[in-house]
């Protein structure tokens, strides 16, 4: 959930013009990469893609001391993910796609969710934001739920009327069942049987909060 909200916040940041992007990059990535990244960002914006994920990818490479060619390659790859997400969303709806939605779906694709499964999730929510659903699926896959099974659960939840961040609660409830010792199949069946009334995950205990505030 934090990842999804963070992506939306990044996408909502002002894009600015090309000079502003170059100004943000200069001195923080190799100078040899600035003009190329600047051009990639301008091209992305002209195609209706969000700029901030590309800028952040470049800055990430600069912070790691990556050479110019590797930063350019990484930003180009991220632009490709954004274009794939935009194309997927355009196939499932009408009109422009919000930048935050493109960013969220691209992140799900970047977590190795196959495009055909991502498209199935988007099709279950026509005209609605699919970012939370994509991240719910990715979270389930991250906990070793098979990709098709994860998609089946989230699509079933959407068809049952579960929407928005509540889809992340569906994933969290499944993970909770796994942590209780259930097999993946039993965990999925338990949560599916409870739909659409999946409870939100319980708040962390006071002990957990205190330990989080005190470095070991």
Concise overview:
With 216 residues, the chain is an all-alpha fold. It has helices at residues 2-12, 18-25, 31-46, 52-63, 68-91, 99-110, 115-123, 131-142, 147-159, 166-179, 184-194, 206-213.
Mind sketching the topology for me?
Elements: H1 2-12, H2 18-25, H3 31-46, H4 52-63, H5 68-91, H6 99-110, H7 115-123, H8 131-142, H9 147-159, H10 166-179, H11 184-194, H12 206-213
Question: How does the overall form come out from the CA principal axes?
Answer: elongated
Low-confidence stretches: 1-5, 7-18
- What percent of residues are in strands? under 5%
Q: What characterizes the major β-sheet?
A: none
Backbone structural class? mainly alpha
Number of strands: 0
Provide an overview of this structure.
There is one protein chain. The chain has about 220 residues and is mostly helical. The protein has 2 domains: about 1-110, no CATH class; about 115-215, no CATH class. It is about 70% helix and about 0% strand. The protein has 12 helices and no strands. The chain has helices spanning about 1-10, 20-25, 30-45, 50-65, 70-90, 100-110, 115-125, 130-140, 145-160, 165-180, 185-195, 205-215. The longest helix has 24 residues, at about 70-90. About 40% of the residues are buried.
């Amino acid at each position: 959930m934090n990842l999804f909200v963070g992506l939306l916040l990044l996408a909502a940041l002002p894009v600015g013009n090309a000079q502003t992007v170059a100004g943000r990059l200069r001195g923080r990535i190799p100078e040899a990469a600035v003009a190329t990244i600047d051009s990639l960002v301008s091209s992305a914006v002209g195609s209706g893609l969000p700029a901030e994920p590309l800028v952040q990818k470049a800055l990430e490479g600069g912070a790691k001391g990556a050479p110019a060619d590797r930063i350019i390659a990484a930003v180009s790859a991220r632009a490709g993910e954004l274009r794939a997400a935009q194309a997927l969303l355009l196939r499932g709806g009408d009109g422009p796609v919000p930048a935050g939605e493109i960013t969220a779906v691209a992140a799900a694709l970047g977590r190795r969710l196959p495009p055909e499964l991502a498209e199935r999730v988007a099709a279950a929510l026509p005209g609605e934001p699919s970012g939370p659903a994509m991240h719910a699926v990715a979270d389930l896959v991250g906990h070793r739920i098979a990709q098709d099974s994860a998609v089946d659960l989230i699509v079933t939840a959407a068809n049952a009327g579960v929407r928005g961040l509540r889809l992340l609660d569906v994933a969290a409830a499944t993970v909770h069942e796994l942590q209780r010792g259930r097999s993946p199949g039993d965990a999925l069946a338990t949560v599916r049987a409870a739909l659409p009334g999946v409870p939100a995950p319980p708040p962390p205990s006071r002990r957990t909060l205190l330990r989080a505030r005190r470095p070991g």
